[in-house]
Amino acid sequence: MVNQTANDNSATNQVSYMSQSGHPRAGFRRRFGSWVYDVLIAIAVYMCAGAVSFGIFGALVSAGVIDSQGYSHPIDVQQHSLIWSLLIYLWNLGWVSFFFIYFWARSGQTIGMRAWRLRVQNRDGSLISKTTGIKRLIFTLLGLGNLLVIFDRKNKLALQDRYSDTEVVVLPTVK
């Protein structure tokens, strides 16, 4: 009798972890591993976007399109101007945001998620839209939204999952 009750409880718990698509939802450790990979890639995207933006900015300063304000180097112009600094940082963050939204809407997986066999999807198993990707990115809070998974062991939903009506599932291994 005791074993039957224990089996029934574990079956009930297993069902709560499953998504409608039949894949189990991802736990915190797997999400964190994926997050580490994606942070490294996001830093690389940020740096590449920064190199391009500063190259364009430097060319515009050299051409006289942007006033050098008496500074001898374009970096000094950028660092002493709140507007130019803000524009360049927003440009860089825009490219990082594009990276996540593009991959989530295209295949449901960033490079880090692919390495950890994770997929973000709507609750019905379909790919998310770009609009949903934007909502998801806002509520991710630089990955801190995933901490909610530690406390929500029954549903395994992060903050961004709840507010964008999505889920992260573990895909089966490919043989």
Question: Could you characterize the architecture of this molecule?
Answer:
Mean pLDDT is 90; it is low at 1-16. This protein has eight helices and two strands; from the N terminus they run H-H-H-H-H-E-H-H-H-E. 62% of the residues lie in helices and 6% in strands. Helix 4 (82-106) crosses helix 6. A two-stranded antiparallel ribbon has the order 1-2. The two termini are 39 Å apart. With 175 residues, the chain is mainly alpha-helical. The relative contact order is 0.16. The longest helix has 35 residues, at 28-62.
Please give the structural blueprint.
Blueprint: H1 2-17, H2 28-62, H3 74-79, H4 82-106, H5 111-115, E1 118-122, H6 130-140, H7 148-151, H8 159-164, E2 166-170
Helix pairs in contact: 2-4, 4-6
Which terms would index this structure?
single chain, 175 residues, mainly alpha, two-stranded antiparallel ribbon, 8 helices, 62% helix, 6% strand, disordered N terminus
> What is the count of β-strands?
2
Order of helices and strands: HHHHHEHHHE
Distance, first to last CA: 39 Å
User: Could you list the spans in which at least 5 consecutive residues all have pLDDT below 50?
Assistant: 1-16
Helix content: 55-70%
State the oligomer: single chain
Q: How are the strands ordered across the major sheet?
A: 1-2
Global Rg: 22 Å
Q: What general form does the structure show?
A: elongated
The number of helices is 8
Strand content: 5-15%
SS-based structural class? mainly alpha
Query: Biggest sheet: strands, sense, closure?
Result: 2 strands, antiparallel
Mean pLDDT: 90
